[in-house]
Design a protein that fits this description.
Belongs to the major facilitator superfamily. Monocarboxylate porter (TC 2.A.1.13) family. This protein is mainly alpha-helical. Helices cover 74% and strands 0% of the residues. The two termini are 31 Å apart.
């Protein structure tokens, strides 16, 4: 069929099938266009300007096959219902990502109290397992969202998260923290995080970067509020009631998320709730997934160790465990809104690459030479927070460029289950570097900057293989 069309249609000529439909009805014209769309390759459909995600190849026999898709997807791009979903997602992400962004405050406290006899690397495993579970469980949560929607996922996630926090408030031994915080709370975050992000994509395409940026500001705002609140509570109420009070605060946001978050587009026919790692064979998707892996590997090292780094430099406890993380997450909030809006104008991959340049600059030019000063560390925290905020909010939009929305949960979850490995090993490796360096942090700084450099190279290659190597190409 393809060879016949190529031989008949000369350069600049219209296909015979199209010309034959000129006297026919609009329905005939539409049918011809559908045939042409299916006969085109993904690279032809994914134009640089429009950025419309392609269907799978015609020979794809998986659940992602062409016949399983709804043709002519349309998106509200706004309106009351769409923005209520964004607000609901914001509440779900405030509870989940906000908690994830305050792990440095929690780690600093347990390192000095309940687990003071353990090394930095050993304590780091508690929080690295937590972040790995939070991202890694998405390998099934994403496909389940595609097939069944967010309702039961959010309800179960809310129960797991609150139960995990209440159990964490009573922890006194290492294995207590692994079970209560790393596993139980981590599963709760995963059940909330993935549906909240994926639901936004059901209502926005052209403005998806901006809408995702608005929704994910919740993680940064939670990362500002929780460290400051916990720092004050730890001084007055100690560990148990401080964590419980944070859990009671989160309940309100979980209720709102359960009421408002929903999906809009139907699942593909014969959609499976099981993951499909065959999609990693796509060169662009595989390279971008590796970029996300390196990005997340380096991201959580500063999030976890900035408080201990500040204390090691002799800064005050209030600054090291509360203010510095608030500065980091303030940059993160701004980095999710402004670059998210720009991503719709210049392309999400270009926005992601620009932010990676900022994180590399912040690591090598600010943190390494000037991190021993309060202004230097503050500037680094803001810049790195700004860059990471953009990358967290725009990376899902980049993934959305490579798939149909009905399969978005599966693609997103597959990328982030790989990223979960980076989260798992990043914090313990950072702790091991500190221990091997006799408490010095230069190695941690270099590790952070190099991870972001590799992420930049991989992301640029993913873009280059898809739309060409010119750095200004919109994609």
């Amino acid at each position: 069929m393809h060879e016949k069309r190529d031989s008949i249609d000369g350069p600049g000529q219209r296909p015979l099938a199209e010309s034959a439909c000129e006297p026919a009805t609009a329905q005939c014209q539409k049918g011809t266009n559908d045939v042409q769309d299916l006969a085109s390759s993904p690279s032809q459909l994914l134009t640089v300007e429009a950025g419309a995600p392609p269907p799978p190849p015609l020979d794809d026999k998986s659940d992602s096959g062409v016949d399983n898709y709804v043709k002519d997807e349309t998106y509200p791009e706004g309106g009351l219902e769409a923005w209520l979903v964004v607000f609901g997602a914001w509440c779900g992400l405030f509870a989940s990502l906000g908690l994830m962004n305050c792990i440095g405050t929690l780690q600093s406290y347990v390192a000095e109290h309940q687990l003071s006899s353990y090394s930095e690397g050993a304590i780091g495993w508690i929080f690295s397992i937590f972040t790995a579970v939070s991202f890694g469980c998405g390998v099934y949560i994403g496909p389940l969202f595609d097939k069944y929607g967010p309702r039961w996922l959010l309800a179960c996630g809310s129960l797991f998260l609150i139960a995990g926090l209440m159990a964490t408030s009573a922890c006194t031994q290492y294995w207590h923290f692994i079970l209560a915080f790393s596993i139980l709370t981590g599963v709760g975050v995963a059940l909330l995080f993935t549906p909240s992000v994926a639901a936004i994509g059901h209502f926005f395409l052209r403005r998806r970067g901006f809408a995702s940026g608005i929704g994910t500001t919740a993680g940064g705002i939670g990362g500002i509020a929780f460290p400051l609140i916990l720092t004050q509570l730890f001084a007055k109420l100690q560990w148990g009631w401080s964590v419980r009070i944070m859990g009671f605060m989160i309940i309100f946001f979980l209720v709102v998320a359960n009421v408002l978050v929903k999906k809009r587009l139907p699942a593909p026919k014969n959609a499976s709730p099981h993951p499909d790692f065959r999609i990693l064979k796509d060169k662009t998707f595989g390279l971008f997934t590796f970029s996300v892996f390196m990005l997340e590997f380096g991201l959580f090292i500063p999030v976890a160790y900035l408080p201990n780094y500040g204390l090691a430099q002799g800064f005050s406890r209030e600054f090291s465990t509360g203010i510095i993380l608030a500065i980091f997450n303030t940059g993160s909030v701004i980095g999710r809104v402004i670059p998210g809006y720009l991503a719709d104008l210049v392309g999400p991959y270009n926005s992601n690459l620009g932010s990676l340049c900022i994180s590399i600059f912040a690591s090598f030019v600010v943190w390494l030479p000037f991190g021993h000063t309060v202004p230097g560390l503050s500037v680094f925290a803001f810049l790195f927070g700004f860059a990471s905020g953009n990358n967290i909010s725009v990376a899902p939009v980049c993934i959305g460029r490579l798939c149909r929305t009905q399969e978005y949960g599966r693609y997103y979850a597959t990328a982030y289950v790989v990223a979960a490995v980076g989260c798992l090993i990043g914090i313990p490796i950072g702790g091991a570097i500190v221990s091997a360096s006799g408490g010095q942090y230069q190695g941690v700084i270099l590790c952070t900057g190099l991870s972001q450099t590799v992420a930049f190279i991989s992301c640029y290659c993913a873009k280059g293989f898809k739309v060409g190597w010119h750095p200004l190409t919109k994609f």
